[in-house]
Design brief:
The chain is mainly α. It is 72% helix and 2% strand. It has a single domain (3-295), classed as ABC transporter involved in vitamin B12 uptake, BtuC (Orthogonal Bundle), CATH 1.10.3470. A two-stranded antiparallel sheet has the order 1-2. The chain is globular, with a radius of gyration of 20 Å. The termini are far apart.
């Protein structure tokens, strides 16, 4: 393979990490939500709310980390609407999630209109000493922006909290057997609210990544439907943060390849290239369904999508 081919592959891997990072944050948020038993189809809307918040804060205060924090908190606050409707009012989670997604799209379009065409300074890449000099891997993983490194930390922390702490065990139990959790004195409502809020925080950070790193300017519907890919990735990752990282980078590679092939002038329909990530999404969901039908293997939380009412058994 010549030098151009090697460099093309390395640059594609680097772009895969960048394109996959917002998906990773959003997928982790979805994993936390669904591990508690709450389905959230409004991820794309929450990402757009986070993206707009981050852009406005960065534009007015020129602080990247304040923008990230604001995006996380605003997205989490909007996510609590979903929690109120589904957990307290016991509405259908699918319908509520879809409404939340449309609400986020409309909200970002309405309040983002004055900012269309305006730009901000993108978050710079930071080379990690020693690690960045590792052949191939160093350039791909350790010469990235701060939010990429933060995503590594969030994956490890989410993994640890879900599977190695009592709080994580209690949260997962509300998604598997809420009646049992309630019978031993756990508040199913509290844990589900907490999961939706924390999930909203992570999804908001994923949304913030778009204006702060990927685009540096505001346009309507900035996420281009990536939140729906995150919904599929939750299933692809089997509700596990570690597998979410691999899945996000796989889809990031599909998105990066689409853009790089267009830049290279490859004679292929641009519509076909734009379809690639979503075709992969359908393929992943199909394979997961086949795996379940053949082997009967499913790691989906048993009470996912089910409304919990004290004293009632599902």
């Amino acid at each position: 393979m010549n030098g151009f081919g090697v460099e093309f592959i390395i640059l594609t891997f680097i772009a895969s990490v960048k394109m996959g990072t917002p998906l990773l944050f959003a997928t982790m948020g979805g994993v936390v939500n669904e591990r508690s038993g709450v389905v959230n189809l409004g991820i794309d809307g929450l990402m757009l709310v986070g993206a707009l918040t981050a852009f406005v804060v960065k534009l007015n205060y020129d602080s990247t980390w304040l923008a990230v924090l604001a995006a996380a908190l605003v997205s989490a606050a909007v996510a609590l609407i979903h929690a109120l409707v589904c957990i307290s009012l016991r509405a259908n989670q699918i319908a509520s999630g879809l409404a939340l997604g449309l609400f986020g799209v409309g909200l970002s379009g309405l309040f983002g209109a004055p900012y269309v065409g305006k730009s901000i300074v993108a978050l710079p890449d930071i080379a990690v000493p020693v690690l960045s000099s590792i052949p191939l891997l160093g350039r791909v993983l350790f010469q990235q922006d701060g939010l990429v490194y933060f995503s590594f930390f969030c994956v490890a922390l989410t993994w640890y909290l879900l599977f190695y702490t009592r709080t994580g065990l209690n949260l997962r139990s509300t998604g598997e057997a809420p009646e049992v959790s309630n019978s031993i004195g756990l508040s199913v409502t509290k844990y589900r609210y907490m999961a939706v809020w924390v999930g909203g925080l992570l999804i908001g950070v994923g949304g913030a990544y778009f204006p702060l790193v990927l685009t540096s300017f505001w346009v309507d519907n900035l996420t281009a439907g990536r939140g729906w890919i995150a919904v599929a990735l939750v299933i692809f990752a089997f509700w596990h943060p570690g597998k979410a990282l691999l899945g996000a980078y796989l889809f990031g590679a599909a998105l990066a390849l689409q853009l790089r092939l267009q830049l290279l002038g490859v004679k292929m329909s641009p519509y076909f290239l734009e379809m690639l990530p979503y075709v992969l999404t359908i393929l992943v969901l199909t394979l997961a369904t086949i795996r379940y039908n053949i082997k009967g293997v499913s790691q989906m939380p048993a009470a996912l999508g089910l409304t919990f009412v004290k004293g009632e058994k599902h």
